[in-house]
Amino acid sequence: FPPGWPEEFKHLLQAQQPALHSMTGVTVGDLLALRDKLDYEYDYTATTTLRIQARARYQGPRPDSDPQVRVLSRNFKPQVECALCGRPAQYLASNATVGPYVALCAQHAGSHGWRYQRMHRLVNSPRTGLCQYHGPMEARYAFERFAPAHPDRG
After folding, report:
1. Which residue in 132, 134, 128, 82 sits closest to 108, CA to CA?
2. Rounded to an integer, what distance in angstroms lies between the CA atom of residue 41 and that of residue 32?
3. 129: Cβ–Cβ under 8 A, 6 or more apart, which residues?
């Protein structure tokens, strides 16, 4: 434990260790049924609250058993319009550390970007503009291109 941690925090974390270890080998699919929802808070200097819903099951090939991370799905690109012309936005601009943001297309980000202290690419994350996340290194990983098959739709 880091120096100075209160004893009650140490006891709480130590009490949770057996439960955490018993989750080894459990997948998200083991825990969520279709249409289940869960709330999740990610906190790294600025809290982001997410509501996650299981909307479809992955139908592709089973990933190899090697330890690498496999991306099975991504968010769809949000439909955000440029505040100045209505074209698809590619940037979020702000004069504050955390919002409010103004959505801008590439043209207006170039011509009006000097008016803003902060300019972020619109990326595949509910945390766009927070905590130095600037999106994936490769553009092909930015957003999902194909809609998943939904069991509700034939």
Report:
1. 82
2. 18
3. 92, 94, 98, 99, 101, 118, 120
Give me the long-range contacts of 94-100 (CB less than 8 A, separation at least 24).
94/118, 94/129, 98/46, 98/129, 98/130, 99/129
Q: Are 104 and 91 in contact (CB under 8 A)?
A: yes
Residues 84, 104 contacting (CB under 8 angstroms): yes
Q: What is the mean pLDDT of residues 2-19?
A: 60
91-94 and 47-53: which strand pairing? Answer: unpaired
The answer to whether 121 and 90 are in contact (CB under 8 A) is: yes
What are 43-102's pLDDT values in tens digits? 666 777 888 888 877 777 766 666 566 666 667 777 889 999 999 998 888 877 666 788
The mean predicted confidence, pLDDT, of the chain is 72
- Two tokens, residue 120: 């972020």
